[in-house]
Specification:
The chain is α+β, with helices and mostly antiparallel strands. The chain contains 18 helices and 10 strands. It folds into 2 domains: 199 residues, no CATH class; 180 residues, no CATH class. Strands 2-3-8-5-7-6 form a 6-stranded mixed beta barrel, surrounded by 4 helices.
Amino acid sequence: MFTKLERKIAFRYLAAKRRGFGSVVSWVSLIGIMLGVATLIVVMSVMGGFHDTLLSRIVGMNGHVVVYHQDGAIADYDFLIDKMKQSKVVAKSITSIVPIAEGQIMVTANGNNSGAMVRGIRMSDFEHKVNSGTRVYGKKPSEIKDGELVMGATLARKLGAHMGDNVSLVSANGATPTAFGTMPRIMSYPVMTSFFMGMYEYDSGYIFMPLETAQKYLNIGDSVTHIDLFLKDPENTDAVRDTLINTLPDGYVVRDWRDLNRGFVGALQVESNVMFLILMLIVIVAAFNIVSSLVMLVKDKSRDIAVSRRSMMRIFMLSGTSIGVIGALLGTVLGVVVAVYIEPIRQFFQWATGRDLFPAELYYLSELPSKLVPVTVIGIAVIAIALAFLATIYPAWKAANTDPVEVLRNE
């Protein structure tokens, strides 16, 4: 597309000290594109990391599709689970179906107390759901017996509870009426295992126990509060949800993870879109700087244009696009490096400033997540190069339409 002479002239213009690559405007253009591309890659990677963490940790422990009953308890849950599995749509989509008994409590130990959520689950199901990123201390979940607890590590530290220590659970469910009023249900259990998921909400506020223990403590008999369905593809919940709505008896309510986390998922999606648009403005502004740089280059090289008009349009398009290509490549490399090492970088700046830059209480995560998607990275770089190319059209057209006679007359 470009001849050897055109490439030689284009790169000579870029190396010019008065104009082109050596000028302040061109440097601003290149740095702007580089920073815009790098920032976009980092932000989109962090947003992707948040999305994956939502699925693997928050959603992964809660179920992708959840079945409730309007009365608050499901009695024949094993029969209901068998009925669900009889559906071909459900059977081919699920990895497991888990009955859960759950309730809010207050837990006390060593003079400390905290609100928490107690969740009864079959320990075989719990061990299956603990992902590789979760650290477990004490007994293995499969070794937990009736009357023993598994507690979040942050909650255990807050209460000052160690492995084997007894903690008291206080619940309004199943409260005992007395002559002096209703007394809350208080029972003591030993903590035999603690876990650290890296999800602040779970680490600081959840207690797991065997399903039978939870049923006794919550005083719900042989019932559960809801049933979790875990799918092979968490993104495709519509078919399973619609099938359950049509097949389950009246009184049952079916929700998927998007419904249960609608506020968080919606906020994450809106923030991702808004950040993409805002940061893309950096690249657009840098592209407009290319226009200014090339317009000045056209004026500076008007004598050359007057004697070499035929190839000027392609020469100036090559000059401007080169700035975009170099900026996009440097920005891609910088963005990928920062995205890969985002957590060590955060820890360094946190140490240097002495401030908590990523509070777990606010973001519900103990570490800053990041996930690089090659398609997204390539797409951002291509968009930046395309914008740089579009920015060269007007200056190149202006250069190509410069009248040689008029230029020489003004000289």
